Amino acid sequence: MPKAMETVLEINLTALGNNFKYLKSKLQPSTKFLAVVKAYAYGSDSVEIAKELVNLGVDYLAVAYVNEGIILRDAGIKAPIIVLHPQSVNFKTLIDRCLEPSLYRPKIFKEFIDIAEENNQSNYPVHLKFNTGLNRLGFSENNVDFIVSNLKETDSIIVKSIFSHLAASEDEDEREFSNSQIECFTNISEKLFKKLDYQPLKHMCNTSGILNFPEAHFDMVRSGIGLYGFSNIQKEQKNFTPIATLKSVTSQIHSIKKGETVGYNRAFKSDEVLKTATIPIGHADGISRAYGNGKGWVTINGKKASIIGNVCMDMIMVNITNIECKEGDEVIIFGAVETAENLSENINSISYELITAISQRVKRVVCRK
Prior knowledge:
By secondary structure, the chain is of the alpha/beta class. The chain has helices at 13-24, 38-43, 46-56, 66-74, 91-96, 106-118, 144-152, 175-195, 207-212, 340-345, 351-357, and strands at residues 8-12, 32-36, 60-63, 81-83, 100-103, 124-129, 157-163, 201-203, 220-223, 244-249, 252-256, 261-262, 268-269, 274-279, 297-300, 303-308, 316-319, 330-334, 363-367. The protein is elongated and about 80 Å long. The termini are close together.
C-alpha cells in the first residue's frame, strides 16, 4: 500500500481470510460458521467484510439491528442474515428484506408471529435466543412449553436455530460456570426438540468458546472479534492478525519553547525545548479524550510518539522531539504491531471499544497484503 496522505482506515482482507481459516481449523467439517458483522463489521466496513466472508464460505451473517441488515441487502448480499436484537416496530421491514430475527421473550415472539401471519408468510425463518447465565437477552427454560404451543398453532414461522451466549468463555477461572451454561443449554434444547417434529440448529460458542470449548461447538459457531484479529485469550493472540490499520499524516511540526503550552486548556506545559507534530484525527474520529496527556501514542517512522495535551475534536498533538520526521510523514495510530488492544489497555478499555468508535467520516481503504 502507498503511504497515507490523509487519515484512512486500511482494511486488510488477507488478514481477515487468515483469521477465518484459523477459526475454521478448530471446527469439524460439518460445523457451520456464523460471522458477526454488526457495528460496521466492528468499525471496519460491513459491506466489504460481509462480501469477503460470503466468498470465504460463511453460512450465516449476523447484525445487531434491522438497519444494519438493510445496508447489506442494499449492497446485494443474499446470504442469510440474523438480526440479533430486532425491535418489533421494524418487523415488517425485516420481513420485506428477508432478514431473520432473533426472538428472545414471549411478547416479541407473539408479535413476530402476528406480523408474519398478517403478511401471509409461511415457514419464515426465526432464531430463538435462550438465557443461560449472561442475563442480557433470552427466553428461560420455563418458556419452552409456551414456545411449542405457539409454534403448533401457526405455520407462519419455522425455527432455524436456537442459541445462547457464553458469559466468560475466555476465562479459565470461570470454566465451571461456562460448563454450567453449556449443560443448561443442552437441557433446554433436548426439552424443546422432544416437542418439535424437526430439529433446528444449535449454537453457543463465540470466538473464545470456539477455542476453549470444542465440546460446545454443536451445529454452528459464531465469531466476531476473532475475525477482526483479536483474541481474548492471550496465548491465542499470536494466531490472529488485526485487519484494520488506522493511519494519518503529520500536518504541521512546531518547535515548543520551555514554559510554552500545547492545546486546549493549556493542558500540557513544556519543561524543556521540544518538537510537536499535529495530526488530523481527534475525538470526532474515535480517538477518545482519555488518550490525551500522555495516555496514548502514535507511531511515526517506527518510533512511538506520545499524545500531549488534550485530544481535540479533529486533531491531536504528539511529541516528536526524538523522532526524525517531516511534515507529511505517515502516522500509524494502531495496526498489526502497535495494536488497538495495546492502546486501549492504557486507558483501561478494550479493543472492541476503540475499533468500533472509528467514525464513518474516516475514509476506508480495502487492500490485500
